[in-house]
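tool_call predict_complex ligand=pyridoxal-5'-phosphate
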Amino acid sequence: MFSKTILDFGRKPNVIRDLSAYAGRRKAEIGAEHVFDFSIGSPNVPPPPEVHEAMLDLLTHADPVEIHSYTAAPGLLSLRKTIAQSINRRFGDHVDESGIYVTAGASGAIAMALKGLTNPGDEVIIFTPHYMEYLIYTEAYGAKPVIVKTLPDSFQIDLPAFEAALTEKTRVVILNSPNNPSGVIYTKESVKALTDAMKAAEKRFGHAIYLLSDEPYRELAYDGVEVPYLMNYYDDTLVCYSYSKTLSIPGERMGYLAICRRCADYADVVDVCAGAARALGHICASNLYQRVIERCVDVVADVNFYKENRDILVKGLEDLGYTCIHPDGAFYLFLKSPLPDSMVFCEKAKAYELMVVPGHDFGVPEYLRVSYCVARETIVNALPAFAKLAKDCGL
Ligand code: PLP
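tool_result ok
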């Protein structure tokens, strides 16, 4: 017999990928310019020139055997040192290379941390709206996701709801800021309240509760809004970082897990995460790309392009009567569904060739997600279609 849980993961539809495939079919049928695909969150800004320059230089001048060989499982020591120095320079003195593990994107880091830190029956707190895959990684290892609602309208932490969810079985809390799908950045006040509650719960229950900071969008914050660095608030923090969006290289699968060196049972946490990576079949991240990252560790793609897209989209939709959560970061807009069920609304939108994602799988069915990592003209040309849709829904 197969594991029913794992079989179900394989069979569960992926709403975003299905919508994106549908958009592809519609483009072939009626022409790409008539289809407005806001489904998927894949960067459309090219990687900064430094990335290709580094690749070309490595391919031209480095030893071809060396740059394609296996590396140590946690990554090249020189890269891990470079990442640790970059974190400490930017955010405070938190990590050394022993706590840096180079992974296949943030996904690789989250999966290995959850596998390493949880035992079957442990609880993992996840806030709405949430990235869908958290549930898969949590359940795959026999832990239990505990979904906690955030405050309506602001989507900041609802402290009483969070405190009520903390139990003796809580092992991990996941926070994603800037948030996919809402674009919300948790404020310093939210982070302080959350981490104070976690410290109190650690004391009460007598064991560590780890905070997993999932931050693929850290660099995508607009108008100078600060994204608090969680290790400054809480020692039992592990950061899951990604270069997918920062450097526009999602297909290269590069990221890291950073473990705060002041965390409880540090040596064991380092080893259990390494063990989890091994159990998950991780051998090492791409050697060539580790070298590219080492040269581009503080480089960022053109974030301003996304900010301008956001401004045009938010203004355009608000002028039409839509209500949205003002996104301070990432490249997603969370729109209140004009119909009570966003699934019905998103189906209706397809009649206008608008592909937007219902909020059900993010845990908020009254909202929908619009990914604005698209060409500028897609936004501009989609606004008349959004206008017709608004009328159709009585806005
Ligand atoms: N976490 C969140 C919130 C995301 O939105 C994504 C990707 O979209 C990931 C993790 C995974 O990113 P990566 O490509 O780094 O695995």
